[in-house]
Amino acid sequence: MSTTAAQDIPQSVPGLLARNARQFGKRTAYREKEFGIWQHWTWAETAEEVRAMALGFLVLGVERGDYVAIIGRNRPALYWSMVAAQSVGAIPVPLYQDAVAEEMAYVLDHCGARFVVAGDQEQVDKVIEVQGKVTCIEQILYLDKRGMRKYDHSSMNWLMDVQTEGRAAAQRLGPELDKRLAELSYDHTCVMLYTSGTTGKPKGVVLSNRNIIETSRASSEFDKLKPGDEILAYLPMAWVGDFIFAIGQAYYTGFCVNCPESAQTMMTDLREIGPTYYFAPPRIFETMLTTVMIRMEDASKIKQRLFHYFMAHAREVGPKLLDGKPVSLGARLKYGLGNLLVYGPLKDTLGLRRIRVAYTAGEAIGPEIFEFYRALGINLKQLYGQTEASVFITQQPDGEVRNDTVGVPSPGVEVKIAENGEVYYRSPGTFVEYYKNAESTASTKDPEGWVATGDAGFFEDSTGHLRIIDRAKDVGKMADGGMFAPKYVENKLKFFPNILESVVFGNNRDRCVAFINIDLGAVGSWAERNNIAYSSYQELAGLKRVLDTIQEHVETVNESVAQDEMLSGCQIHRFLVLHKELDADDGEMTRTRKVRRRIVEEKYADLIDALYGDKDSVYTETEVTYEDGRKGKITATLEIRDARVFGAEKKMAAE
Questions:
Q1: How far is it, in rounded angstroms, from Cα 211 to Cα 246?
Q2: Which segment of 250-254, 360-364, 423-427 scores lowest on mean pLDDT?
């Protein structure tokens, strides 16, 4: 884009909204499914809703620089509240809706939120619970009225009433709103998003309009996104990925944002919408694949044979067709028949038939999972990014998509590798600062704007693509000097539908060991088909046949890892299946489902010691948090299994 064209871009998200209302006024901007019916709002209607809400915020006394917390599931009105807050010069701070009250209290207190916009009664209750120690909150606004009638409304308002008051005050407060809108510049704060806190307390990442709009512009042009595209907004609103896709790119490009009715109906809503542009972290793609495999196990023998026959062909031909590589006429015809009988119906079932561009990020995806979707003809690509970069650091160009790289630097992004292998970047999307944390800002971003990612990687000489090995702090050495990269092995394990999560240990040790979580849905389905009774996750995880199956998976992964000369020392020698799922409520994972490796190591130190000992079982007691917030304790005796490793004989012969 030329400098002149770049200068014509509105300097704020509310500015983009005003432009869209003029240029795409009658196009659908938002859809939301409620009570089974899709509601629609055009860009012109969206602009009117946001203006009414912004005027209502002025009635309530929202000042320039105030922080407005937004908590709830993806709903148009909550997205509008973020843009309305920006319109009056305030700063939206979305929070994870599944966060417990204590986690919310930290963020609300840290940012000093005067106003909270809550989706429903559950979120209101959590805010009220922490108001005793978070004294900055003056007003709670709620979207869903159900269950709210008997609350004290002296400092609480229904969001629709706020809009009604805003409309009534339009003549009186309109000039003030227009004045504040005119003040917004590229360097005003657009949003503050909190990191997942894998290593400590979450940090408030301050992102400016420049960060969000320039990143949205570059990434939208990279993938040729257009007003006719459709996305499904279902990821946490507190996550930078959702903000970029559902606010940044949506407002820059003018495409439609679709909000599902609930998490339970998400897959049904995905099929109904059939998005053209789709983003999901690896876990979502893993879950989809698990569902497919479970259904195939329940299918007739003929369907199973058809599926496996055509999928074998798809794995060979599908990625070549996507990349525009030469494929024989016979192979194309066979793939076309497979599309008619297998791939097409499967993509319809998953809601992915219309996908033009799909991305996965957040952590590495298993190569087998990645290739499965590419084989179906879904243009799934990997990107590498983080909150501090406004998401995009690298992307995979069409025709250059591989499972073992994260692509080339995104437009406008510079990337370099430090001597210790750590990846650094700088770009227009580079965050302004960590809120109230000058020390962390200085240690992460140097005076020249280079940001330390904390990830270890390298550029391939032949392609210029970046390969990420692991988190820099997690990459270590085995006792024999070989590289230890746990995520590489963990992702291979999670390809199997029966394995939900894995944690590999081995830094400075003579061998690797692992914890494994089974996937309750996949293994439970298998148990039902085989008439195996079980009463709990713990009982199912301890069954001999389940352990035998997991052992087969571990040994299959070991055989694959043994082929990589650099990482062959990361084969798993011993493992156990945990008696509970790793849980964010127990502090073992972040709200974005990343394992807090150090906490897991400390919490289950007795199990790690047992894996490195000579016992074949270990007794353990573990504190857990129930859904209602109560604490409890579960006990278990876990079986420890030895797994076959590969290449040891060859190594001994060489010595």
A1: 15
A2: 360-364
The single-letter code of the amino acid at 15 is: G
Instruction: Supply the angle between the helices 13-23 and 76-87 in degrees, to the nearest 10.
Output: 120
pLDDT at 89 over 50: yes
At 199, the pLDDT band (50, 70, 90 cuts) reads low
Q: Is 283 helix (H, G, I), strand (E, B) or coil?
A: helix
Task: Give the pair of three-digit tokens for residue 304.
Answer: 């199973």
- Which stretch of 1-5, 135-139, 367-371, 479-483 has the lowest confidence by average pLDDT? 1-5
Cβ(225)–Cβ(116) below 8 Å:
no
Q: What is the largest CA-CA distance in the chain?
A: 87
CATH 2.115.10.20 fits 3-208+233-256, yes or no: no
CA distance 288 to 185: 42
CATH architecture for the domain at 282-471? 3-Layer(aba) Sandwich (3.40)
Q: Whose structure tokens read 């994972």?
A: 589
Distance (Å, whole) CA 213 – CA 631: 44
pLDDT digit string, tens, across residues 256-283: 999 999 988 998 999 999 999 999 988 8
Is-contact 358 279, C-beta < 8 A? yes
Distances (CA, A) of 214 to 74, 218, 391, 635: 24, 6, 12, 52
Domain ranges of the chain: 3-208+233-256, 282-471, 478-654
Q: How confident is the model at residue 586, as a pLDDT? A: 86
In this prediction, residues 345-357 reach a mean pLDDT of: 94
Task: List, in sequence order, every residue forming a beta bridge with 158; answer none if it has no partner.
Answer: 142
CATH number of the domain located at residue range(s) 478-654 in this protein = 3.30.300.30
Q: With contact defined as beta carbons under 8 Å apart, do 427 and 389 qualify?
A: yes
The strand pair at 572-577 and 115-118 is best described as unpaired
Mean pLDDT of 79-87: 98
Flag whether the pTM goes above 0.85: no
The CA radius of gyration of the chain, in Å to the nearest whole number, is 26
CB contact set of 127 (below 8 Å; sequence gap of 6+):
71, 104, 108, 116, 118, 137, 140
Classify each residue of 553-583 as buried b or exposed e, where b means 16 or more C-beta atoms within 10 Å of its C-beta. bbbbbbebbbeeeebbbbbbbbbbbbbbbbe
Alpha-carbon distance of 487 to 384, in angstroms, equals 15
